[in-house]
Amino acid sequence: GAGVSQSPRYKVAKRGQDVALRCDPISGHVSLFWYQQALGQGPEFLTYFQNEAQLDKSGLPSDRFFAERPEGSVSTLKIQRTQQEDSAVYLCASSRHRDRGRYNEQFFGPGTRLTVL
Amino acid sequence: AQKITQTQPGMFVQEKEAVTLDCTYDTSDPSYGLFWYKQPSSGEMIFLIYQGSYDQQNATEGRYSLNFQKARKSANLVISASQLGDSAMYFCAMRPSIQGAQKLVFGQGTRLTINP
């Protein structure tokens, strides 16, 4: 498919477990974003990559959250020692350009629903 | 800091009627972009329409139009001739246009239900 894909779609983890969430952006897209969406809320920004460089990680809630995009394509969001408050949908988005032009909209994946027991 | 406010948690509309979803925003940035996204039950965010803060005309995309009132800091989404498939969550979002500030700031969303 030509869209953003994420895996797994659903993840159940026991409290204290480490998890890794994968995002495959649209081929050729320079920018990649991670958002966290709690139940009944709007998405909240976590971090942003331009190619392999992580330019903004101001939204990561704690040092248990870590994201990487080593080759400027696929990205992984890792959460260490998961807590119940980490339960949410994690959305990945990509955009074509690095600038802020009119058509530089973000295309979202279906998200990964993480449930921490 | 930027903030988006959507004051309507839920809206119920009869099929084929027009509906307006409210969005107000707060920012000190001189230029910015405003977006509306649709999120069906499948979870994916679908881009609907964009308005730049310096655009002279209100944006339109098919049945979607954006009622942009800059002085009031509002960017309401108007859906004409609503369809059953329009039932979903709708999010208003903002992105500043300054260097490096790529992230979107979202509102709480409005759940729209179209009744047959």
Shape of chain A: globular
Estimated helix fraction of chain B: under 10%
- Taking the alpha carbons of the first and last residues of chain B, their distance comes to 41 Å
Summing up helix and strand content along with how strands pair, one would put the structural category of chain B as mainly beta
Average pLDDT of chain A, rounded to a whole number, is 93
* Strand residues, percent of chain A: over 45%
Q: How many strand units of chain B?
A: 12
Structural class label of chain A: mainly beta
Question: What is the overall number of helices of chain A?
Answer: 0
Which consecutive residue ranges of chain A, at least 5 long each, have pLDDT under 50? none
The number of distinct β-strands of chain A equals 11
Helical amount of chain A: under 10%
Shape of chain B: globular
Radius of gyration of chain A: 14 Å
Strand content of chain B: over 45%
Polypeptide structure, described:
The complex is a heterodimer of chains A (117) and B (116). Chain A has 117 residues and is mainly beta. Chain A has no helices and eleven strands. In chain A, strands 2, 4, 5, 6, 9, 10 and 11 form a seven-stranded mixed sheet that branches. In chain A, strands 1-3-8-7 form a four-stranded antiparallel sheet, with no helix packed on it. In chain A, strand 4 and strand 5 form a beta hairpin. The mean pLDDT of chain B is 92. Chain B has strands at 3-5, 10-14, 19-21, 24-26, 32-39, 46-52, 60-61, 64-69, 74-79, 88-96, 105-106, 110-115. Chain B is globular. The interface between A and B is medium-sized, with 26 and 27 residues.
